[in-house]
Amino acid sequence: NHLQNITELLAKKGFVSGIVTTDEIFGATPSSFYAHRQDRSMSEGIMEDLTESALSLFISAGNFTGTKENAIGDFTMLPTLAEIGNSKRDKIAFLMSGKTTSAESDSGLAKATENALQFLQNKNKPFFLMVEGAKIDSFGHENDIGGVISEGIAFDRAITEALQFADQNAGTLVIITADHETGGLTLPQGNLGRNEIEGDFTTHDHTGIMVPIFAYGPQSYEFQGTYENNEVFRKMVKVLRVGE
Fold it and tell me: Rounded to two decimals, what is the model's pTM?
């Protein structure tokens, strides 16, 4: 049965949408917001869905070689992050390095979020933006506590951009969560004075450990409690009043 994803549903209600991720745009999480394929490995089909999607913006890792005239479908590829915020084009995209170092990603995801918010706000329409700190999961698989920390900090800086935007633009709701935990991470001890933390892992795989959800802004109280992660979609539909 064909189901509408959140960006398709919102497009029918006059919203514009965007995706920012440190993963490739055809990765599992970003593609779930625009694609219709049976498996995450169907990259070619997912990219076809991207060109037909309701998205106005995407920023992702990757280095596409099949672009024509600096475009992917109707998405114009911009050369720098700084050009995104003030772009007047209908559909734009930017590719970050596929091998972004932790130092680069510290500010890169935040800058991408800042410019994506500005671009979508300039559309003068209600908008939806999904921002993913994807490499937190990758370092969890590798049991690399240093990587988890550095990518967590980068994601925290992106969240800061979203919260500052919300404070300056009434009516903005920010939702922060994760799809799962990776590595069975526990923190046995640490020393704040020496900026030290001990991380211990139990697996290289995903786990069933519950993840937190935070919400800030209008009707954020709707996101309190404990529930299955698919309820987040239904709650967004409810607070935005965009039910089919």
Answer: 0.92
**CB burial string 143-165: b at 16+ within 10 A, e below:** bbbebbebbebbbebbbebbeeb
CA distance 25 to 238: 27
β-partners of residue 190 are: 197
Phi-psi region of 162 (alpha: psi -120 to 50; beta: other; left: phi over 0): alpha
* Token reading at 112: 């991408």
Q: Which of 100, 153, 154, 128 is nearest to 14 (CA)?
A: 128
Tokens read off for 41: 């490995």
Residue 194: the pLDDT is: 95
Question: CB-based contacts of 238: which residues, under 8 Å, 6+ apart?
Answer: 222
Beta strands in 55-111 (DSSP E): 55-61, 71-72, 75-77, 92-96
pLDDT of residue 102 exceeding 50, the answer is no
Structure tokens at 180: 């799962």
CA max distance for the chain = 56
Strands 75-77 and 71-72: antiparallel
What does the mean pLDDT of the chain come to?
Answer: 92
Query: 119-141, pLDDT tens digit by residue?
Result: 999 999 999 999 999 999 999 99
167-217-127-44 Cα dihedral, nearest 10 degrees: 110
Rounded to 5 degrees, what are φ and ψ at 107? -105, -20
Angle of helix 145-168 versus helix 102-121 axis, rounded to 10: 20
